[in-house]
Predict the structure of Aminoacyltransferase.
Amino acid sequence: MTFRVQPISRAQHLAFVSARPSVSHLQIPSWGDVKPDWRAESLGWFDEDGRQVGAGLVLLRPLPRLKRYLAYLPEGPVIDWSAPDLERWLRPMLDRLKARGAFSVKMGPPVVVRRWSAEAVKAAIADPGVRRLGEAEATSSEPLAAQVADRLRGMGWRQAAAGGEDGFAAGQPRYVFQVPFAGRSLEDVHGGLNQQWRRNVKKAEKAGVKIVPGGQEDLPVFYELYTETAERDRFAPRPLSYFRRMWTALNSEHPDRMRLYLAHHDGEVLAAATMLTVGDHVWYSYGASTARRREVQPNNAMQWRMMTDAHRLGASVYDLRGITDTLEESDHLLGLLRFKVGTGGQAVEYLGEWDFPLNRLLHRTLELYLARR
C-alpha cells in the first residue's frame, strides 16, 4: 500500500516539522513566502490509519507561456529516506504533482554521503594531486546514501547537474561546511577553532569590535555591505526587498527564526550576517563585509558570536552552508573555504538534487533553455 499525498494547511505543515529535531529552513511553510516568483504548496504524507508521516514544501515555477510547472522541493521532502520502499513514498507525490500540472519534479534528498574533517580538508588543499574535494579520502561515509541513489535510479530519477538558485536553475549546494555542537561544550567548540581563528577573535576583542544584534530597520546597513561583497566576490546580489521579505516571512512564523548581526568598530559597521534557526539546526545564511579595516578581524568576531548564540540556543549543528568543491588556488572561493575550515568543523557532501521528467519533451525543452542562459 502506498501513502496518500494531499495538500495540507500551513498549520499542519508547521506542526509536523516543529515536532522534528532538524528540518531544512527551505522546507518550512514560510519559505514559500520568501519566493514570490514561485507558487508554494504544502503537501502531507498520510498512512492507512490517517496519521501524517511526512511533509514537503513544493515550489511551482510556471514555464513561460504555458500553464505547466517545474515542481521543486529544496532539501526535501521530509520523509523516511531510510525506507527500503521509497517508491511507496515518492510515487504518490509524483502523481499528485503531475495532476497539479507539473512537467518535471526536482528534489534534494537530505541524505549525507561523506564527511571530511577540517584536517582532511586542509590536507586535500595542500595536496597538488587533489583538484576537487570529492577526490580526497573521506573521514567517514554513509552507506545509506548509495542505497538511496540506487533506489532513485531504479524509479527513473536522474541526478541533476549543479545549478544556481535563481529562476529555473533551481539548486542548492551539494557540499556544505558544518560545525557539530552535539555533546560539546562551548569550550570544546572554541578549542576546535584553529590557532589563527582564536588569535583573530582575541584581536577583534582587543581592538574594540562589538557584535550587536540588529533589527529589520538595520537591513539597509547590511545590504550596503552585501552589495560591496557581491562586487568583490563576483556574484549577482539579491535585491533589498528579498531580505525584507525574508525577515517578515520567517519571523512572522517564529519570532526568532531569523537574526541579524552587525560588527561595529569606531562608529562604523564593518560586517553583518544573517542567521536562521529551525529546531536544533542553525545556519549562517548571508554574510557581508567591507574591505576597510580588515585588520581588526570583524568577520571572525561575528562568526564566533553567532556560534556562541547558536550553542546557547541548544543547536546540535552550526551550518556555514555552501563551499566550493574545487581546491585549486585559481578558484576565488578557496579563501572562503579556508575561512570555514578554520572553525574546526567538517565538510559534508549531500546526495545532491534529482530530477524526474513527467513530460520528457517539456523537460528537455527546459534543459535546452537553461543551457542557453
Notes: The first strand starts at residue 4 and ends at 7. The two ends are 43 Å apart (CA to CA). The domain at 183-315 is CATH 3.40.630.30 (Aminopeptidase). The mean pLDDT is 93.
